[in-house]
Amino acid sequence: MYKIPEFIGPFKDILPNFINYQRSLGYDYQKPTVLRFKELDNFLSKYGYCKIEMTREMYDLWIAKKGNETHTNQGRRCSAFTTLAKYLISIGYDNIFLPTPINNKMWKSNFVPYIFSSDEITKIFRVADKIVNTSHVDTPTFVIMLATLYTCGLRISELLNIKLQNINFTTGAIQILNSKNHENRLIVASDSLRKKLIEYHSNYTCPINVEYFFRTTDGTQVPYGTFKTLYHRTLALAQIPKKDNCRYKYPRVHDLRHTFAVHSLAKIISDGYDTYTLLPLLSKFLGHKHITETEYYLRFTEENYDSVKTLTNNIYHGVFPKMGDDNE
């Protein structure tokens, strides 16, 4: 846990308690978030604020755009101010300006994730095993990581942190531990992926002193940067187009997770199931803390259904375990 720094402004005695309180609720207040509040503390000191108050004037000055910074970064400052304001109100302080959704909505990102088509997914997996390894991660390791990431809809951090003891090779169950907001969950790999995991494990016997299931040739955890480099090489070889008018050169690794969610919902809709009945199941599978996070994908899928419904062709054969299995 990142150490709480010393604060010097008017909230110097409140901020440590606030950070500890947020952590007790399960929020991941590590270095980037803690330093955001240290930045706020320095800001208050710099501009001579000495009372325990949060005003509209203070808010406007705090979120004012700095040079060429992105809306996302402004949004983070807005979020920090709002979260602290709610805390101060909850413990009884007056004279606290609480930004409303109207105040905040201008900082919401209009970023649209890249959703891969079925043809693009097929191309990616056709060329993945042709990537020349120069990074201490052999090709079979990269391919099985890529397959697990997409077919299970994982966050990249969740994939990298999977350990041998987290996988039940009989049932296909995989434990995802200490994920976002310190949440744990259990997912079930498709039977086809389960067999691939068994094959990978039998060919790459894990030494007793090696902790992670997916590892480098040195037996260490695969670095995110290494995986991302191999992923970008794969996209280039598969001739996935570079993104125009975007700060990202290629679709992000995280876009595979977005694609999984949209493809899953498109499949649910095309099969005639009640989306709002199955949405909580998908939400749990994805590890969302609130179902509203999953509803974002539902809105995206419904609004773009005519263009999305063809994305699921031939993707889902063997991806999801059958309901009612003896091993479920």
3D architecture notes:
The chain is mainly alpha-helical. It has two domains: 14-107; 118-312, Orthogonal Bundle (hpI Integrase, Chain A). 49% of the residues lie in helices and 2% in strands. It contains 14 helices and two strands; from the N terminus they run H-H-H-H-H-H-H-H-E-E-H-H-H-H-H-H. The chain has helices spanning 14-24, 31-46, 56-63, 71-90, 101-104, 118-127, 139-152, 156-160, 191-203, 224-237, 255-270, 275-286, 291-303, 305-308, and strands spanning 173-176, 185-188. The chain has a two-stranded antiparallel ribbon. Strand 1 and strand 2 (185-188) form a beta hairpin. Helix 11 crosses helix 13 (291-303) and helix 12 packs across helix 13. The protein is elongated, with a radius of gyration of 23 Å. 26% of the residues are buried. Mean pLDDT is 83; it is low at 311-328.
The CATH superfamily label of the largest domain reads Intergrase catalytic core
Number of helices: 14
Average the pLDDT over all residues and give the rounded result. Answer: 83
Question: Helicity, in percent?
Answer: 40-55%
Strand arrangement, largest sheet?
1-2
Under CATH at level 1, the class of the largest domain stands as Mainly Alpha
What shape does the CA trace take? Answer: elongated
- The assigned CATH architecture of the largest domain is Orthogonal Bundle
Quick recap of the structure?
This protein has 328 residues and is mainly α. The protein is 49% helix and 2% strand.
Topology:
Blueprint: H1 14-24, H2 31-46, H3 56-63, H4 71-90, H5 101-104, H6 118-127, H7 139-152, H8 156-160, E1 173-176, E2 185-188, H9 191-203, H10 224-237, H11 255-270, H12 275-286, H13 291-303, H14 305-308
Antiparallel strand pairs: 1-2
